[in-house]
């Protein structure tokens, strides 16, 4: 494992905190732009607020990339929960989307469960070379997992999205989250391939490194564009509060599963970590259920009025 210096850790965590707040505002700004354009009878592609949210998303993703290269994922990823909470506050101001009591409890449980899950999840092992990374990509277990993800994406995009996308938020969330299995490994591999392909030192493996770099870049661009498309479809039909919270949880879970299979750290998990992962998933499931229930049920602290005799 490659050790990070204290300065690198502090810088990575600082970038992650800023990126979390930036990412927390992206869905709210895009939702605001969609509502403004819908009211004006125009497409949201012509709305400046929507484009502000889109540019903010790009900045936030660049920040995430820098943070993950400066600090371990176990420190960076839980900080994404700050974006969920910030998005809830911002949407109540810009969109008047008030989370009811059940929704607020669900949001807190989702964030807490995600932190517990990440703390006990397998820790990413450093891959020192492009050849080692490429060898792990060709592992039969990882290839089987990616095949399963592709089949689920075909099912979601080809059948469930047209039929149930506008009525069930989990369809769009599932598409965007499953694509995380491609985006994170692609980001990790791009850096390794770029060092060998453009490092300045010629070697017989330069062509292989360049080919891997171009393949990963293509996969990353297709995944991001697909995510971008379905994120905006979700924002057109659902509350940004609910979407952001559920998306954060499912995307994080998908990334953890993909990286655990790719780097095989699950083999070193002890009973304590297994119990922690189970508790984290249980907490997340309860939180997501409360978020879904909050769309149809209202719970307040106000006592019911009694009839006067």
From TrEMBL:
Keywords: Membrane, Transmembrane, Transmembrane helix. It is found in: Membrane. This is Magnesium transporter NIPA1. It comes from Ameiurus melas. It is a multi-pass membrane protein. One of its GO terms (cellular component) is membrane. One of its GO terms (molecular function) is magnesium ion transmembrane transporter activity. Signal peptide: none annotated. It comes from the Eukaryota.
